[in-house]
Amino acid sequence: MRSQRTGRRYLAGLAIAFALAFMVAGALGPANRSPCYPEIVFVPGLVALLIGWRAWSMNERSVTLSAVALLLLLLVLIFSHLLPRAAG
Questions:
Q1: Which pTM value belongs to this model?
Q2: At residue 88, does pLDDT exceed 60?
Q3: How many CA atoms lie within 13 A of 49 on its CB side?
Q4: Would you state the pLDDT for residue 27?
Q5: Does the pLDDT value for residue 6 go beyond 70?
Q6: How far apart are CA 49 and CA 66, in angstroms?
Q7: Which tens digit of pLDDT belongs to each residue from 20-67?
Q8: DSSP reduced 3-state for 63
Q9: Using an 8 Å Cβ cutoff, are 16 and 51 in contact?
Q10: Which of 8, 45, 6 shows the shortest CA–CA distance to 25?
Q11: Residue 50 contacts by C-beta under 8 Å, 6 or more apart in sequence?
Q12: Phi, psi torsion values for 75, nearest 5 degrees
């Protein structure tokens, strides 16, 4: 039981760390030149961070919430290439 709780916390911490890294990389990377910058970086990053934080504090469904947070970040990375770019 203790090892399962440790694993769930590890996965939730990983989701939180990836959400923070996503926001930092988005702020420093080429995404800040896009007209959809806040929608690309900060909204999904904050949502993933909140979901990861919720997974950290829960016992049941924490694996599901962590997976949803990581999947959200992955989907945003994949589909962000379809958004319009700034000219120049």
A1: 0.85
A2: no
A3: 13
A4: 85
A5: yes
A6: 10
A7: 999 998 888 777 777 777 888 899 999 999 999 999 998 888 999 999
A8: helix
A9: no
A10: 45
A11: none
A12: -65, -40
